[in-house]
Amino acid sequence: MREHLAVGQGVRLLVLSLLVGLSGGCGAGERQAGRLHIDGSSTVYPITEAVVERFEAERRGVHVAVGVSGTGGGFKKFCAGEAEVADASRRMKASELVRCRENGVDPVEFPIALDGLSVVVNPANDFVSCLTVGELKRVWEPGSTINSWSQLRSDWPDIEISLFGPGTDSGSFDYFTEKIVGEEDASRPDFAASEDDNVLVHGVSGDRGALGYFGHAYYVESSGMLKLVSVDAGSGCVLPTAETIANGTYEPLTRTLFLYVDRLALEHEDVLSFIRFYMANAGQLASDVGYVPFPPEHYEEVLSEIG
């Protein structure tokens, strides 16, 4: 079963099963009306930032603060009751759900868009256009001794590979290691890591031998500074585009992006109005920043369910 929900394949709203039958709780702490705190994924951040900017312009009197601690870091704050909303580039783990429930936080999951985790090199790199999943694994797996492009393919130049990737609190790190290396969190440690994808963009753009990966929106925003690399999972080289991400052919790096909200927080009108606004605008704004929206009926069904 694929991890993502491909556009045009009859999206089943994951949120529906979570909106029904959740146990009550007292919550992790009191919240201040008119103030929302969101934290989590740097991948989802561009969508959330665009939503918040439009929301605050239209709904004066409600302030939304957005942090970028990475998906794992965002879940820690969310489950501790320090944020009403978590941005996530992967699904919540069972251990994180347990932690939330122990603190009286009931997560409600909203799939908001699709992303194609993008592999990039420096634009001065004129020899790499496609990498196989096997080659990516050889570079990134624990204990890897691949330090030069010539070690990967003998006809490539002897240029040192500089690696850039999301930090260990990032959902992108979790997803990439699971899909490429074959085991979540299994990675060589000697790479420049950051939960801020803009840092990775500038790192790759400033080093001729660089190789990195991050959410597709960051490539779209900085395409003039980067070179996008195709990925071959066994059926030929495929670039991440709106079409290949939507139809699921950009494998294995197509994934679903999520928003998590505390069910108890949804009882507050300011939080509920923000989530309604988010889902009403997520499709268009996801597309605007470089991600792939679900069909309109996905967002319409969510809106009808949350009322």
Explain the overall architecture:
With 307 residues, the protein is α/β, with parallel strands linked by helices. It has 2 domains: 14-115 and 257-306, D-Maltodextrin-Binding Protein, domain 2 (3-Layer(aba) Sandwich), CATH 3.40.190.10; 118-239, 3-Layer(aba) Sandwich (D-Maltodextrin-Binding Protein, domain 2). 37% of the residues lie in helices and 20% in strands. The protein has 12 helices and 12 strands. The protein starts with 13 loop residues before the first helix and ends with a helix. The model is unreliable at 1-29 (pLDDT under 50).
Which key phrases capture this entry?
307 residues, alpha/beta, D-Maltodextrin-Binding Protein, domain 2, 2 domains, five-stranded mixed β-sheet, 12 strands, 37% helix
Secondary-structure blueprint:
Layout: H1 14-19, E1 35-40, H2 45-58, E2 63-66, H3 70-79, E3 85-88, H4 94-102, E4 107-116, E5 118-121, E6 130-132, H5 133-140, H6 149-152, E7 162-166, H7 171-181, E8 192-194, H8 197-205, E9 210-214, H9 216-221, E10 227-232, E11 237-238, H10 242-246, E12 254-262, H11 269-289, H12 296-306
Helix pairs in contact: 2-11, 3-4, 11-12
Please outline what is shown here.
Helix content is 37%, strand content 20%. With 307 residues, the chain is α/β, with parallel strands linked by helices.
Distance between the termini: 31 Å
What's the CATH class label of the largest domain? Alpha Beta
Q: How can the largest sheet be summarized?
A: 7 strands, mixed
Number of β-strand runs? 12
Give the structural class.
alpha/beta
Number of helices: 12
What percent of the residues sit in helical stretches (DSSP H or I)? Answer: 25-40%
Element-level helix/strand string: HEHEHEHEEEHHEHEHEHEEHEHH
